[in-house]
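Incident log, structure service

09:12 report received: a user says their structure output differs between two submissions of the same chain.
09:20 pulled the input from the user's history:
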Amino acid sequence: MKWTNQEVKILKQYSTTAKTMSDIHNDLAAFGYDRTYKAVTRKIESMRLNKPFKKMNIVNLPKILILDIETTPIAVWAWSLGKQYVNPMSIMKDKNNKSMDWYVLSWSAKWLYDDKVLSDVVTPTEAKDRDDKRITQSVWKLLDEADIIIAHNGDKFDLRKLKARFIANGMIPPMPYKTIDTLKVARKEFAFSSNKQDYITKFLGLEEKLDTNFQLWLDCMNGDEEALEKMERYNKTDVVGLEEMYLKLRPYIKNHPNIAIMMDENVCSVCGGDSLVETGKFYHTGASKYEIFYCEGCTSPHIRGKSSVLQTNINVRSSS
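09:34 re-ran on a clean worker, output below:
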């Protein structure tokens, strides 16, 4: 079906506004156009439309990594089902008397705003040998390079799991980095019916997870090459959806790492853009008053000046 002039006009908003591909897809649907998400992305790519980075020095942006990993379950002997304490002695052992503990199956990552999705997955032989050293070394290099790492439940799961495998595989810690855990953001700032990434991306009309079941993990652990390839695709889709979700939630993140300090420039502290406009409103603390700015790039309203705009010194304060 030929694209109409009205549709093309809506598509062009991708390169002139902060709207994501999912936003554009939703706008088309609102106008009554029946286009699939995949058709929209392909058309935007064919038109060679890029995000509006003219007001953002993307070269100087800190290295922000979107990350997701997949791990295996632990094989254990249990006397019953349901919630219970499982003694570490219950972890099963294989025919070589090796503990059948969990290990990393795959990882996927991408640098913020970069179209390329990076990934690695264990080989069939590595899967059967429960050997994740090679892929933990490859993801270590990215963590070592990153200034900020974004992951859903990353603080509790992804990053702690990786560090456990780093030390198990005789690796040193990567260089320090800041983290943004979108699960914590979802719990703190919103009342979604579920805080799972799959639910939130569907709720917001973003890139959705691929359908999987537990059998996929079992097949991967048995070294099934086709299953491992599917696991890698599943992992990649997660990262694309995670980036879209982060950008959607970003204006609501009150404790976002200060991008301006990392860039050493007077720009938006959330996205690094220089399109800040005055709002005429002020943020008041117990003793000071700060002007609030609005970022046209990421739509964050939580931008404040570095110094108080009070004309006089206020010496009287509340006792609370």
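09:41 both user submissions now match this output. Likely a transient worker issue. Closing.
09:42 reviewer note: The chain has three domains: 5-46, 58-252, 275-304. The CA atoms of residues 136 and 304 lie 40 Å apart.
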